[in-house]
Amino acid sequence: MIYTLLLFLSKLFPVKPVYAHCDIPCGIYTAEPAQTAARTVAKMVEKIEGADLSDVHGISRFTAVKEEHAQITKEQLLILWTDYFKPEHIEMFPNLHETFWKAAKLCSRNKQEVSMEAAKELQKTVDEIAAMFAKAEAAKQK
């Protein structure tokens, strides 16, 4: 009985597809959270490398924060990559996908190891993405 009623109503009021660029189409994007998280990763690596080896508690805390912020960096980048950037941005930035892929891999590397080289490379790549984002935003204003 209910099925018949719903079928009848769907014929009277057909379902129309809804399109949105993200779960909550607010249109508010920024690269800043990824940049801050990447800087935090580098700062924690610095603290780990400079820590007294007997400070097990401090080293474990620095390591936990480093890993957490590497994950935050990855999540923030994935939001920009999947929700903000569109096919038309590939024309502006032919290396867009490669740069994001590299950044995501660097996030994983920074979670797995303590390396200032990897932390600095993550910061550099995130800053490149932030520059792409800023250029894309500026192009929207024209």
Explain how this protein is built.
The protein has 142 residues and is mostly helical. The protein has one domain: Nickel-containing superoxide dismutase (Four Helix Bundle (Hemerythrin (Met), subunit A), Up-down Bundle). 76% of the residues lie in helices and 0% in strands. The protein has 6 helices and no strands. Helix 3 (56-84) runs antiparallel to helix 5. The chain is flat. The protein starts with a helix and ends with a helix. The model has no long low-confidence stretch (mean pLDDT 90).
List keywords for this structure.
142 residues; mainly alpha; Four Helix Bundle (Hemerythrin (Met), subunit A)
In terms of topology, how is this protein built?
Elements: H1 2-12, H2 32-50, H3 56-84, H4 87-92, H5 96-112, H6 116-141
Q: What share of the residues lie within helices?
A: over 70%
How do the SSEs run, as a string of H and E? HHHHHH
The CATH architecture designation is Up-down Bundle
Q: What is the number of beta strands?
A: 0
What would the principal axes of the Cα set say about the shape? flat
Gyration radius, in Å: 21 Å
- The percent range for strand residues is under 5%
Fourth-level CATH superfamily: Nickel-containing superoxide dismutase
CATH topology: Four Helix Bundle (Hemerythrin (Met), subunit A)
Q: Which whole number gives the mean pLDDT? A: 90
Query: Which structural category do the helix and sheet elements fall into?
Result: mainly alpha
Count of discrete alpha- or pi-helical segments spanning 4 or more residues: 6
